[in-house]
Task: inverse folding
């Protein structure tokens, strides 16, 4: 589970048990606050905009507005049936009670979250020298791993270059040894982009063009000479 503080992931650090406990309590409070606001969203004040789109000090509470609308419907039905009107204060008492509770609990939870966040910040600030040391050591290890991976990648690319070169040499009877089309300059690694095969082990049409086996303007990228003729004419150091 990620450990986030002010938008930064601290999961890779080895934090102290005390700091981890403070973070756990903060996260718990944040979840309680979020859930409370979600469950009681109809008790939150909704401020009204004026005709210019500016927020005014006037507001309404959705739960109270809904209850008042339902009460008016019951009052209308009672009058139509000749029955006494329902008691307004009694009908709205529960909704008003929820609203008053929300006005107290929500800000209290918000303040508790702020206090918990402040405690986490102070705890992390004390650990910054140690966290910097950890970051330094992690960077050193990562650099060694990166260099080792690059060395392996370069060796693999060189192996691919040699393999593709042998394939082209054999396929073209020595006319090609490196990819020829689409701006390939012969730099190491271009074979990675040029060599592509299908699921059944065949060279793709696009790959054949990139390798220079097919000239998109002439249909193929080879001379009209036979394989034996090309081999006989091939210089001792043939590079295309």
Result:
């Amino acid at each position: 589970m990620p450990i986030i503080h002010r938008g930064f992931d601290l999961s890779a650090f080895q934090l102290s048990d005390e700091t981890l406990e403070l973070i756990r309590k903060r996260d718990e409070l944040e979840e309680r606050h979020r859930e409370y606001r979600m469950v009681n969203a109809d008790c939150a004040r909704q401020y009204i905009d004026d005709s210019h789109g500016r927020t005014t000090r006037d507001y309404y509470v959705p739960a109270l507005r809904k209850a008042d609308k339902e009460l008016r419907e019951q009052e209308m039905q009672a009058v139509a049936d000749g029955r006494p009107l329902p008691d307004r204060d009694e009908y709205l008492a529960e909704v008003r009670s929820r609203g008053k509770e929300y006005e107290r609990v929500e800000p209290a939870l918000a303040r508790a979250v702020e206090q918990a966040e402040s405690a986490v910040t102070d705890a992390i600030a004390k650990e910054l020298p140690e966290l910097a040391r950890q970051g330094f050591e992690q960077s050193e290890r990562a650099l060694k791993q990166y260099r080792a991976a690059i060395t392996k990648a370069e060796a693999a690319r060189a192996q691919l270059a040699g393999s593709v070169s042998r394939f082209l040499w054999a396929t073209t009877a020595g006319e090609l040894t490196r990819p020829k089309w689409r701006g390939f300059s012969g730099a190491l690694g271009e074979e990675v982009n040029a060599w592509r095969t299908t699921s059944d082990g065949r060279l793709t049409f696009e790959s054949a063009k990139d390798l220079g086996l097919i000239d998109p303007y002439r249909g193929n990228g080879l001379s009209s000479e036979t394989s034996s003729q090309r081999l006989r004419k091939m210089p001792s150091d043939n590079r295309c």
